[in-house]
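Quick review question:
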């Protein structure tokens, strides 16, 4: 069996490392800088990243021996997939690993917004009893609008239906029948914005989706709508969201992702109507284990020329 050199630049659970060590020499450097990556990469046959490492065209070009780039997770917007493919490098990811974790966080943020759980907790810790000032709203009977209904969106829909919500979804890449099989009613984006009490964003970040939830989109929403995004920062225009929160158009927002990460204490982050988490959608023990094992198996399959489950096509 051939021995491969594998660089892991963002860390990986032990279960995945154990698989990789059986087939090669593994270097784990979760703090590697961009400059160090460019210097080291020519020695390696495989690179495994999460979201921190930016694999731009310059990095791809430095990987003169690279056969495969693996993304331990779903989104590959931090990888120049087109450049990799042009250089003959296979790109793979692990799209199933975080589905449950992100869906559960989405539902958790919706509940936290509906019942103002962080505000209630903070008040209690300060010795305040705000019972009369914490009249929330119920999810039951409300309309949830899903912008994109892929694996994670479908998992959110299934959980929302159990909670008694009506689920509507907009996804230009799925047929109406496909959307219905995912427990949602297909609608146009305009109809979704006008009817939803809660809106959850599950679109990838692409040139087409960047800033798609902008000032015009907020103007078309119901007054008092609540927004959740656990997908990618940049899909929501953060300046427009802040204005909508200030005007009262949006009653609250739950954000796990931001256009710039970490965002720092921006006016949006510190806003009293915003619940923030630091891009932890996939941060469960179970999801991390699945991601590590899935990407390790996929990278080894690519190195050894075996069939692939999750090869990423060009995004150009």
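Suggested answer, residue by residue:
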């Amino acid at each position: 069996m051939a021995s491969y050199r594998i660089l892991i630049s963002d860390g990986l659970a032990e279960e995945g490392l154990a698989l990789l060590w059986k087939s090669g020499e593994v270097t784990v450097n979760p703090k590697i800088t961009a400059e160090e990556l460019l210097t080291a990469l020519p020695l390696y046959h495989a690179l495994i990243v999460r979201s921190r490492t930016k694999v731009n065209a310059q990095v791809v070009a430095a990987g003169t021996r690279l056969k495969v780039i693996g993304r331990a997770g779903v989104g590959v917007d931090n990888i120049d997939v087109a450049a990799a493919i042009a250089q003959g490098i296979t790109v793979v990811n692990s799209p199933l690993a975080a589905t449950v974790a992100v869906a559960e966080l989405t539902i958790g943020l919706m509940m936290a917004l509906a019942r103002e759980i962080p505000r209630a907790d903070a008040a209690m810790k300060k010795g305040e009893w705000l019972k009369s000032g914490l009249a929330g709203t119920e999810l039951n009977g409300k309309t949830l609008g899903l912008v994109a209904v892929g694996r994670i969106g479908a998992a959110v829909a299934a959980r929302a239906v159990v909670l008694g919500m009506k689920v509507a979804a907009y996804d230009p890449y799925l047929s109406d029948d496909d959307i219905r099989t995912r427990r949602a009613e297909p609608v146009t984006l305009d109809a979704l914005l006008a009817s939803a009490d809660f809106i959850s964003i599950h679109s990838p970040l692409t040139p087409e989706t960047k800033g798609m939830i902008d000032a015009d989109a907020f103007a078309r929403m119901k007054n008092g709508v609540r927004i959740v995004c656990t997908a990618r920062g940049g899909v929501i225009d953060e300046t427009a969201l802040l204005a909508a929160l200030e005007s009262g158009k949006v009653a609250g927002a739950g954000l796990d992702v931001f256009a710039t990460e970490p965002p720092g204490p921006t006016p949006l982050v510190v806003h009293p109507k915003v619940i923030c988490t630091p891009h932890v959608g996939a941060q469960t023990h179970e999801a991390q284990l699945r991601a590590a094992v899935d990407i390790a198996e996929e990278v080894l399959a690519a190195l050894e020329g075996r069939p692939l489950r999750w090869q990423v096509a060009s995004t150009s």
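Why it works: Residues 4-97+285-303 form a domain with the Rossmann fold fold (CATH 3.40.50.720). The first helix runs from residue 14 to 21.
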